[in-house]
Amino acid sequence: MNKERVRERLADYQKALFRLKEALEEDTSNPLLYDAVIQRFEFTYELAWKLLKAYLELEGISDVNTPRKVFKEAFSAGLIGDGDVWISMIEDRNLTVHTYDEKIAQQIYLRVKEKYFSKFYDLERKMKEVIE
Question: Distance between the two ends of the chain, CA-based, in angstroms?
């Protein structure tokens, strides 16, 4: 993995993060909002762990092939904070992919809004700092 490829992954991540922010700013009276936020959460989550994986590989850490391993290594390297929140994201991502229940969707929406978005944003800032 080279630095340019990591920059490309960061750019993709930033686009997804912006789209997630857009969805989170929508009016909650729209019943499609929960689906939109969850879909954008899934995209942002996928790009987050792949961005971290690419950066870790650039730094010579190549045995990180799953989100759990990537987040643990990224936490150890100081790239992310609050490792428990990132592990919770894994669990919620798995829930959104394998089941659909309106009540669960609303709960995940709230976690995305109240916990996950700020962690995604912190990751963007940290990666801009370490890449550039």
Answer: 16
